[in-house]
Amino acid sequence: MREDRKDGKSRVFEAELLAYLAAPELWQLGAARTIRPAWIAYLTSEGAARAFTSNFRRGLKATADLQTYEIPRTAGHRWLTTRVRAGDVEAVVTTAYLPELFHLEPTFPDRPGARFLFAPPRWWLAAQAEELAEDFGDDAAGAAAGALFAAYLDRRTHLPLVNDLRFHLQLYRAAQEEPWLSRLGEDPDLFGDGLEAVGFDDVLAVDVGARDLNRFIRRQTAIFHQQEIQNGTHRIPADRRLLPDPGHAPEQLCFDFALA
Q1: More confident: 177 or 250
Q2: Where are the alpha helices (DSSP H) in the chain?
Q3: What secondary structure letter does DSSP report for 210?
Q4: What is the SS3 assignment for 33?
């Protein structure tokens, strides 16, 4: 990154790009060959951290591998710093991301439909899958991801969701067949680099209107109930419950990392 000063001189600040994620369909890409990331992380020396980040936050552009990166001053990114050791040197990892695309709680709750980036960290999936392994076996990680995915949808629709992890897993898998969901590496409007190395699992982008989202939820709910009735008993038990006992409720899972 180069900063031009009023006296005609310039200063150069360096950082190592760790990873970035861009989703131009959800948030503007910018000019040609300029990437405006929705999420980015970079490593700097402790001495250069403040100057580099200050200039980056002011809208100055940074370059890496023939690509130009820019975060407009008015973008609304949240900035986080973590001190680390790189060998024998103290260093700083800085992360910038858009809360409106990543946070579990929607920034604009009155906005119809759902627009978010789904990027659960692998450490979280592994921890939750361990809790669910007895009931879900090889599908435990999928059930954990499904619970989180359902939580995102639940906060973006007025329709109630079935409080059952089996339904959430079904919902999660069915959504990946819908045209309003994109997967990193399969859609040109969702791209990045280094995300697996920094610990992200599969990254998905959701951009769906309220009508299509509600239609999807109603259809999946009907499918789930029909399957449960077919797999359950034909006799209504004394407690008047027609469906068999539900699977684990998602309240036991920890969603803290997605909250802010």
Answers
A1: 177
A2: 46-57, 99-102, 122-136, 140-154, 165-175, 210-231
A3: H
A4: coil
